[in-house]
TrEMBL record:
Transmembrane residue ranges: 26-54, 93-112, 124-144, 174-196, 249-269, 281-301
Region (Disordered): 1-20
PROSITE patterns associated with the record: ABC_TM1 (PS50928)
The family this protein is said to belong to: Belongs to the binding-protein-dependent transport system permease family.
UniProt membrane topology term: Multi-pass membrane protein
Primary subcellular site in the record, as a coarse category: membrane
GO cellular component: plasma membrane
Any one biological process term the GO annotation gives: transmembrane transport
Domain ABC transmembrane type-1: residue ranges: 87-300
Full protein name: Sugar ABC transporter permease
Length: 311
């Protein structure tokens, strides 16, 4: 018996506790309220727009409200000449604005990237228009284009043009005038993003290029521009979407006129919904605009090989 008691079985090793899944789920639980809130703010409006695009919905004519299927889309593409005109002008507006903003923004970024006296003040002045809101920008340029107190009066004082000329009410000058106003605010956006990317270019590359006999143009073409590719692609895509959706500046400057020549698709949507109270048709136009932007963005990113390595 004593020997049996002496040869006792060793105690069993403690059983491993099963790892709790709570620590792994904790990050998702913490971000869940914010994610649900964002989903509600984004998903609900998008679904509502798709829903009302299939409806005839006008609060001022409730007896006509109801499901219409794809009639709103058919009407837009077959029986609404304003839709086609606004779509063409939107493409023209985006192409001209983004192209000029990129050109001037790149030039400004290259200038303020150099070392010179007062560079900090120069950068602040270059970037300051981007801090001004769109409505305030429009108000500033409305005053500048005023026929009684604006630029045209001072030009008439020196013999250029006639008194009482309004560039915003003339179909031949309203587009360039609106372009200049939006350039003033849009160019700093490109300058900021491109300058930020320029700061990361190694100076050793330029020194090596100088040793090899490369001039400024070759250095820009073979070093600076390839390094700025992703920044240029991203900035042009973002700015193209913003310019396509531009409502505040054109609405304040021209209201879509004169004779509707400066009416973009989003401005037409705003007039259709707010002024005409035709929310069903406006929702259909919004859906079309969403599909156009989504398709163009995907094609642009695909063709530009954004984020990929150049071979």
């Amino acid at each position: 018996m004593a020997q049996a008691a002496a040869v006792a079985k060793p105690p069993a090793p403690p059983r491993r506790r099963r790892a709790s899944a709570t620590p792994r789920r904790l990050p998702y639980l913490l971000i869940a309220p914010a994610a649900l809130l964002m989903l509600g703010f984004i998903a609900y409006p998008v679904i509502s727009v798709f829903y009302y695009s299939l409806q005839e919905y006008n609060p001022t004519k409730p007896w006509r409200n109801g499901f219409t299927g794809f009639d709103n889309f058919v009407h837009a593409f077959t029986a609404d000449p304003l839709f086609r005109d606004t779509l063409v002008f939107s493409a023209k507006w985006v192409f001209v604005e983004v192209g000029l903003q990129l050109l001037f923004g790149l030039a400004l970024a290259l200038i303020v990237n150099q070392t010179f006296v007062g560079r900090a003040l120069g950068r602040a002045l270059v970037f300051s228009p981007w801090a001004v809101s769109g409505v305030l920008t429009s108000a500033i340029w409305v005053l500048l284009y005023n026929s009684q107190t604006g630029i045209t009066r001072y030009l008439a004082d020196v013999g250029i043009g006639a008194y009482g000329t309004s560039w915003l009410s003339d179909t031949s000058t309203v587009f360039p005038a609106a372009i200049v106003a939006d350039l003033w605010r849009g160019v700093p956006f490109f300058a900021i993003l491109i300058l930020a990317d320029l700061q990361s270019v190694s100076k050793d590359l330029y020194e090596a290029a100088e040793v090899d006999g490369a001039g400024r143009i070759k250095q820009f073409w073979h070093i600076t521009l390839p390094h700025l590719k992703d920044a240029i692609v991203l900035s042009t895509l973002l700015r193209a979407v913003w310019e396509f959706n531009n409502v505040d500046l054109l609405y304040t400057l021209t209201g879509g006129g004169p004779a509707g020549v400066t009416t973009t698709l989003p401005l037409y949507i705003a007039n259709t919904s707010v002024d005409a109270h035709n929310f069903g048709y406006a929702s259909a136009l919004t859906t079309v605009a969403f599909v156009i932007l989504l398709f163009c963005s995907m094609v642009y990113l695909r063709l530009s090989k954004f984020g990929g390595e150049d071979k």
